[in-house]
Amino acid sequence: MVSLQFNLAMMTNIEELVSDKHLCMTFNEFVEAIGRVAAQLEVPHPLEDDVSDDVELTAEQRDMYNKKPLQEKIEILLINVARNVLSKGQFKQHLEILKQFKKAKVHPNHIETASLRLQ
Q1: pLDDT score, position 90
Q2: Which of 75, 83, 5, 85 is nearest to 40 (CA)?
Q3: Which of 54, 80, 85, 118 is the most buried (most CB within 10 A)?
Q4: Distance CA 61, CA 30 (A)
């Protein structure tokens, strides 16, 4: 499913035999691909939905999760990406920070980050 969505997001390239552009995405194509993958999600939100990872989802649950707005699905996708690339401790810390933002009703994009330093 993911590879199909990434292929659909890429513009057609008529020079596939003489160029490798059909193998490389532009940033705009990548963002579209992320949106296309997220739109297909039928999974619970790790912070908002109380569902265990070990439990198989019912058809009704999948339908309910499929009807979520795209911005929520993109958030779910990015949280799941973070789960797969961060250590368990880092991911737990990441979730706690997200919970604090949600509790304070502050979106991370609204925070001034110019004074922060990456470690």
Answers
A1: 93
A2: 5
A3: 80
A4: 29
